[in-house]
Amino acid sequence: MKKIYVQEWMSFQPYARQDEIDIYYVKVANRLAESLKTAVGERYSEHSLHGIAIYLTLWFQDLITQTGIWEAFTGECRKRYGQPVPFMTPEEEKEYYPGEVNPEDLRFLLWHYFQSLEKQAGGVLNPENPVFEELTHQLYEYLSEEYEVAPENTRLHDMLYGEPFGENDYMRYRSILEWFHFCSYVGFENRSEYQYAVTAAVRMGNVNPGLLSYDVKQNILFEGRKNLLSLTSVEWLALVGKTHPEAAQWAEVKVVPQGMYLYEGEDETSLFVKDLSGKEDVQLSVRKDSVNMDSLKGRKEGATVLQSRWVQYGGTWWQDGTLVVLDYEEKMKEEIARKAAQREGIQKTYEAFMKASGGKQFVFCQSEEEVRDFLFQKMEYKEKEEMQLPEMDAQHGLVLMVSPHTGIHIQMRLCECISSPENKFYDPKEAQRKAILFFLNPEVIPYDLSCALQDAGMLPDAGLNSLQGEEQGRELVKKNARFLTDYFFGKCREKDC
Known about the structure:
Layout: H1 6-10, H2 20-40, H3 46-65, H4 69-81, H5 90-94, H6 103-119, H7 130-146, H8 154-161, H9 170-183, H10 190-203, H11 209-223, H12 233-241, E1 254-266, E2 270-275, E3 283-287, E4 304-313, E5 316-327, H13 330-356, E6 362-365, H14 368-378, E7 398-403, E8 407-411, H15 428-434, H16 437-440, H17 447-455, H18 470-489, H19 493-496
Antiparallel strand pairs: 1-2, 1-4, 2-3, 4-5, 6-7, 7-8
C-alpha cells in the first residue's frame, strides 16, 4: 500500500509549512490506513482508505489539541438525540469519557465515512456490522496508547484561537470558515461536492471559469450542508465558538441567502438594502468597504437591485461572493410577487387541507377518484393547468399529506408501510421490508412529512437488516430514527421543520 505523504496531510491544515507535529500525525494516518487496508481493502480503493485514515487522524488531532469540533458535535447530538454519539447504548454511555478516545466515537466515524462511500451506490450499512466492531477495537487499542503521548498542534490551536476575534476581523473569520468547510473531518464530502458542482456548472455555458469557480465555492461555503449535523459551516462554527471565548464572534454570525435586494440609499460608511423576497422585512446596513463600489456607479435609490449574499459579522453586514447589479424592472417585480404568492399559497393550502380533513395531516384514499373528491370537492380546489394531478396507481393505496412548509404531497409509493386504522392497504410484512425507506430515501417523501409520519407513530415496522434479528433491527431504528432521517435527508428539524 502506498504511503500517505506529508504533502497530502498539509492540504488539510490552515498553514503552509510542515513541522515535527505534522510528521507525527502523518505517521498516525499511515498506521490507520494499514489497519483499514487489512480489514476492507478488497472492497474500497486505496485512495478512499487514505481519505478515511486522514479524516480519522484529523479527529484525533482535534481531541489532542482541544480545538472543540468534536465537543461541539457531541453537545449538539445530546441536545437533538439524547446521547453524545449516535448508535450508542445506555451501557456504553456510562463508560463514555468526553474529550478522550472512545470506541463509540470511532465506531460511529467509521460507519459515517464508509456509509458516505456507499451512498452513491444506494447502499445502507448497519452500524452494528461486525466489521466495524473489529476495526474499532483495533484502532481504539492503537489510538488510546497514542493518546498518552500525542503532541498538541499548537499552531493549529493558535491560528484558530490565539487572538480574540474582533468586530472587524471578518476576513480572518472567513478564512477559518473556508478551512473548516473543506478541511475538517465533519465535512467528508465537501471537497468532492465542490468539484462536482464546478464541473456541472462549466458544462452549462460559456462563463469565465475562474469567476464561476469562485461563485460555486462561496455558495457551497455558506449554504452547503453535507456534514454530520446537516448545518451550514457558519452554523457549525457558531457551535464551536460557544466553547471558546476568543471566538465568541462566531456564535453571532448570521447569513441571508443570495437573493435580490433593493438599494434604498446610503451614508458615508454604509449602503442600505432591503430583501425583495419578503423573507427579511428589515433594511440591512452593509459596509461600503466590503463592496466593489465601482460596480455601483449608476445606482439609484428604489431603482437599483443588488443580487448578492450578505453576512452579519461584528454587528454589521458584509457583502460576500459575486455581486450583480440590475435594474428594478417590471418583470422582476412580477417574479418576486409570484414567489411571495406561492409561499402564501402553501400556508392557505395547509389550512384548507386541515379544515377539510377534520384536523388530520394524512388522508388515506383507495382510488384516484377519492383523491380528486377530497381536493376538488372538500377542499374546493379549482383544477387548473398548473395544478393538474399526476397519473396515480392506487393498487397499494394513496395517501394525501400536507405540510405547512411544502404543501400537499400525494404518496403513491410504499403506502402499505404506513400503519393507521384508516389505511386499508397497510401490510405489516411489507412494512417490515420497506418502511425504512421513509427514513433513508429523500426521493420517497419530503423530509418534514417523514418526520410527521414518525411523530404520529405510523412507521413502527421500520428496521435495518441485523444479524441479531428483525426485532433488533427495528429497535436500532426506533432509538436512532431522528438521527438517521437527518443524516440521509441532509436536513434537521431545527432548520427544516
